[in-house]
Amino acid sequence: MSLKIRRIDCTRDDAREAIAALRRELSPRGNVVSPESRARTVAVFGEPLSPLQVVERICDHVATRGLEAVLDYTRKLDQVALKPGEVRVSADELDAAHRGAAPEYLATIARIRENVLTYQRAILNRDVHIEPKPGLKLGLRYTPLRRVGVCIPGGAAAYPSTLLMTVVPAQAAGVREIAVVVPPTKFGGYNPELLAACRELGVTEVHRVGGAQAVAALAYGVEGIAAVDKIVGPGNLFVALAKKHVYGEVDIDSIAGPSEVVLIADASADPRFIAADLISQAEHSPGASILLTWIPGLVERVQAALEDQLAKLSRGDLARDSLERFGALIDCRDEEQAVTLSNLFAPEHLHVSTADPERLVPALTVAGAIFLGNLTPVALGDYAAGPSHVLPTSGTARWASGLSANDFLRRSSLIAVDERGLAELAPDVRRLADVEGLTAHRWSVDVRLEKAGRP
Ligand SMILES: NC(=O)c1ccc[n+]([C@@H]2O[C@H](COP(=O)([O-])OP(=O)(O)OC[C@H]3O[C@@H](n4cnc5c(N)ncnc54)[C@H](O)[C@@H]3O)[C@@H](O)[C@H]2O)c1
Ligand SMILES: N[C@H](CO)Cc1c[nH]c[nH+]1
Ligand SMILES: [Zn+2]
After folding, report:
1. Given ligand 1 and candidates 71, 159, 236, 239, which is best to mutate, with the most ligand atoms within 8 Å of its CB?
2. Interface pTM (ipTM) of the complex?
3. 67-103: pLDDT as tens digits
4. Measured over all CA atoms, what is the biggest interatomic distance in the chain, rounded to whole angstroms?
5. Which protein residues touch ligand 1 with a CB less than 6 Å away?
6. DSSP characters for 365-423?
């Protein structure tokens, strides 16, 4: 079956408009709600509420009715009737899942944990101490957040990798209390591999709740789930909108939507590798996959490789659908135009499949994660390398960055003076305090200098 992926020829104009339009079109912003999900909304709420209205209603009910509302929505939305004592996964269940897991699987989780820890510890912000003037000491101190909530998706697939890419950065930052929420499904709270991974990572608090009701429970606190300081992790539209809704009550990381990759390829790139990389993000379905190249004929060779591989892969149909709705093969005028268009698109993942990728990196300023060279598929970052795979999507890489251990730290500035430092800053403090009419501010300086005999 021939693949109907969009082809764009940018060789004759600067194509900025075309890429901006593509960005809008290929940015589902997580707004992909299936017909079944829409039907569920009507069944639960009795009317076709918008996802935003659904989320506001769920969050308000959880804030006022607590666990009872969480259990009610879990029954209606997930078709699972949990009793209050069944929400938290017991230590015995975590132990049993761990005992039952294949030793090679646990060894893989442990090895990846080490990779993630090594990277995340290396990039941790360090405290700063300076003495810019005699008698004045300034500093910046980082301390880990006390308690965070981690959303792990589990509606359509199981994601032990997302557990690694969220929990381990928090551990690297020194967060002591980590509460994982995951829907009560065979891909989530009843998934033995996921539970075994939790136990392997030392996560002891896992709650079988998902969607907006889980986010609200973490934000407001309900019986059995204490309120957290920050909520991180990806999820479907309901999770994303709920995180936005509770922001301010708690902090959140970002709104991570459907996956996307931009691939910049020169003549050194193998069309089969390119096709495999485009399909690997498309198989998330939805996922946007875009090729930018200035090599004549490469687009045709990639199209042929895509058709060949889609026919052989088990998720080929899902990936085909995604490539046809959210994919594009783009002919550029030259390397410079490919770089400009990539920056404009601001992809979650950028794969530079060229002979000398380091040469292009300084100009590639806008991307969540950059994969360098023909031997570095995005799947390495998704699963094992070390940086988190929770990255900014839908063009938000313009201003947002991927999740890291630093997102679990808070900053406090430190200021200390001795008598000399106090006297040095006093005239400027007095002047501004006078301008603002805040006499007590001025007096708090004057009283000290008076005592020191330096009025
Ligand atoms: N960016 C990343 O790092 C990353 C990693 C893994 C997964 N993902 C993405 O996260 C998403 C996860 O989606 P998922 O399907 O597994 O869902 P999910 O686990 O995030 O959410 C499922 C929950 O949504 C709620 N829900 C479903 N339909 C609803 C409705 N009509 N009204 C109210 N609530 C409803 C239910 O409570 C259900 O438990 C996918 O798009 C996947 O590609 C992203
Ligand atoms: N590519 C996804 C978003 O970056 C992460 C993921 C999980 N599993 C495989 N891939
Ligand atoms: Zn992926």
Report:
1. 236
2. 0.98
3. 999 999 999 999 999 999 999 999 999 999 999 999 9
4. 90
5. 37, 40-41, 54, 77-78, 153-156, 159, 162, 183, 210-212, 234-236, 238-239, 256, 258-259, 284, 389-390
6. ---SEEEESTT--HHHHHHTSSS-S----TTGGGT-----GGGGEEEEEEEEE-HHHHH
Instruction: Please give the DSSP secondary-structure letter assigned to residue 279.
Output: H
Q: CA 229 to CA 146: how far, in whole Å?
A: 7
Examine the residue annotation and report whether 349 is marked as an active-site residue of this protein: yes
Question: DSSP labels for 335-381?
Answer: HHHHHHHHHHH--SEEEEESSSHHHHGGG----SEEEESTT--HHHH
| Residues of the chain under the 50 pLDDT cut | none
All structural domains of the chain: 6-29+257-386 (3.40.50.1980), 84-256+405-409 (3.40.50.1980), 418-451 (no CATH)
The annotation status of 281 as a binding-site residue, yes or no, is yes
Q: Tell me which long-range contacts 21-26 makes (C-beta under 8 A, separation of at least 24).
A: 22/290, 22/328, 22/345, 23/344, 23/345, 23/346, 23/395, 26/260, 26/288, 26/290, 26/326, 26/328
Residues 214, 151 contacting (CB under 8 angstroms): yes
- Summarize pLDDT for 417-444 with one digit per residue, the tens: 999 999 999 999 999 999 999 999 999 9
**Residues 196, 169, 365, 358: is their CA dihedral positive or negative?**
negative
Q: Are 184 and 155 in contact (CB under 8 A)?
A: no
pTM of the model: 0.96
